[in-house]
Amino acid sequence: MPARGEPEVALYAPVKALLEAQGYDVKGEVVGCDLVGVRGDDPPVIVELKRSFTLALVHQGVDRLALTDAVYLAVGTWPRHQAEVRRLCRRLGLGLIVVTSGRADVVEDPVPYRPRHDAKRTGRMLREHQRRVGDPTAGGANRLPVMTAYRQEALRCARLLADGPMALRSMRAAADVPHAGGIVRDDVYGWFERVERGTYALTPAGRIALDADRALDRGTVAAPGAG
């Protein structure tokens, strides 16, 4: 079982000591803030304390950003998904402190977040958007296979082979499947089999997938979990 973390009140003294060592005058429970540190003309530091990292704690931290840019979230146990939590804190401009064994350690300081765009991921997203025909999958439909452009092309290949084996060159000429060769050779879904060089047929799994796709087009198959 995951550690429950130290009680919230037990986090106060180590965090206070950490800030006092940096010259802050620290007081607790100031107008709803768990801990407020003041040092000369510097922006005040606000720390919100929670036993573990929760969405409620994040909401508190975001609310406190209306008071100062120096807002920390302090927790009494290391978050289960440390990398994701640290990324979230950076994105929101929040700091993160972890208190264990009576010691408070700063994991992230609050700094303005400037995301770096991933050109490769953006390009992959735009290519998928361009290749996909229509809008076959509703957003949030996580119980059904996503109808990707690749799956659409694989289904077009399956339709061509529904009446029997076909040569690859004939498949390319019969429908708009620019990647037909790679699709039937890679056989990601187990739908295709080579019957001779350059000629492919539909497997039983391919026929089942094709029948399911036709049933969905007719609206006769309910999504999994539908009552």
What is the terminal separation in angstroms?
35 Å
- What CATH calls the topology of the largest domain is Trna Endonuclease, Chain: A, domain 1
Helix residue percentage: 25-40%
Number of domains: 2
Helix and strand sequence:
HEEEHEHEEHHEHHEEH
CATH architecture of the largest domain: 3-Layer(aba) Sandwich
Count of runs of 4 or more consecutive helical residues: 8
What structural category arises from helix and sheet content?
alpha+beta
CATH class of the largest domain: Alpha Beta
Low-confidence stretches: 220-227
Radius of gyration: 28 Å
How would you describe this protein?
With 227 residues, this protein is α+β, with helices and mostly antiparallel strands. The chain folds into two domains: 8-108, Trna Endonuclease, Chain: A, domain 1 (3-Layer(aba) Sandwich); 146-215, Arc Repressor Mutant, subunit A (Orthogonal Bundle), CATH 1.10.10.10. It is built from eight helices and nine strands. The strands form two sheets. Strands 1-2-3-4-5-6 form a six-stranded mixed sheet, sandwiched between helices. Strands 7-9-8 form a three-stranded antiparallel sheet. It starts with 7 loop residues before the first helix and ends in a 9-residue tail after the last helix. The relative contact order is 0.08.
